[in-house]
Design goal:
By secondary structure, the chain is of the alpha+beta class. Strands 5-6-4-7 form a 4-stranded antiparallel sheet, with helices on one face. A 3-stranded antiparallel sheet has the order 1-3-2. It is globular and about 65 Å long. The mean pLDDT is 92.
Length: 278
């Protein structure tokens, strides 16, 4: 889905399955695993398939496009909060679920976490941003009967501050790990030392690794963070590497697709996230 989002977004024509299988082989994914993934994504309604003779083709399902657009917007926006002030308020969700409804409790936690909340206490979750609408939508969809959503300030005299819901030291180490892994790749990119295949793999890998931060850190306000927090410089590293690799990675996609459908190779896009200009 990442590959199609980056290089086939907005294109209605379908790609030969053999081309997609070879693209996935760049990532050491075997042909059986690749074809199983294509079938699975089709069953989930993210891809749509078609037949031309004995050959199978795949394209993005229209239902998948808003999801991919939303994901791209989140990737681009993450870390940009550094430039904006925080109003000091928190969205707080308190809920009570009987022990007999463990599955419901798990669903609440999973969905709240996806929307940037973290647990201050077992049944008390918080976010530094105004996420009331998202919280009410989660609670309504899951049928939670005992819950309260509020927008509140945290008294500075509190022994436990809301930001402690996140393990800042662990987060910092994740950012540092990202820098240690991808800074050498950026140097190779600047020197033109990567092959087209390596560029394609590296561009997808850096995007997937950057996107992981969205699930563990809700773009915490700088007012809550220690000095020299690495998010901004990690963000710059991500965009320079991802954008810098784009032309070569796109060319690699075109090269592979041209082996199976030369008339489609020129339709390859370059739609991935780009550093926004101000």
């Amino acid at each position: 889905m990442t590959l199609l989002s980056d290089y086939w977004f907005g294109v209605t024509e379908h790609l030969p399955s053999a081309a997609l299988v070879e693209l996935l082989a760049e990532f050491d994914i075997s042909e059986p695993s690749a074809r199983a993934a294509l079938n699975r994504l089709t069953k989930r309604g993210l891809l749509v398939s078609s037949k031309r003779g004995r050959n199978t083709y795949y394209g993005l399902h229209p239902h998948a496009i808003p999801l991919l657009e939303d994901g791209r917007s989140q990737v681009v926006a993450f870390g940009a909060q550094d430039a904006g002030p925080w109003d000091g308020m928190w969205t707080v969700v308190a809920f009570s679920v009987p022990e007999a409804e463990r599955q419901l409790r798990h669903g609440i936690r999973t969905n709240l976490r996806w929307h940037g909340f973290a647990a201050l206490y077992d049944g008390l979750w918080c976010s530094p941003w105004d996420k009331r609408d998202a919280a009410f939508e989660i609670l309504s969809e899951l049928g939670v009967r005992s819950a309260t959503v509020m927008r509140a300030g945290i008294d500075e005299r509190s022994v436990v501050q809301a930001v402690s819901a996140w393990d800042l030291e662990e987060l910092k180490q994740q950012y540092i790990g990202f820098e240690e892994e991808f800074s050498p790749v950026l140097e190779d990119t600047r020197r033109g030392a990567l092959t087209a295949s390596q560029a394609l793999v590296a561009r997808t890998k850096v995007l997937d690794n950057w996107r992981n931060f969205l699930g563990v850190e809700p773009d915490l306000p700088t007012e809550l963070l220690p000095e020299d927090w690495p998010r901004s410089r990690t963000r710059r590293l991500f965009f320079e590497l991802h954008d810098g690799l784009a032309p070569v990675a796109k060319a690699r996609c075109q090269q592979i697709i041209a082996r199976y459908a030369p008339e489609l190779a020129t339709l390859v896009t370059q739609h991935g996230p780009a550093e926004p200009t101000v």
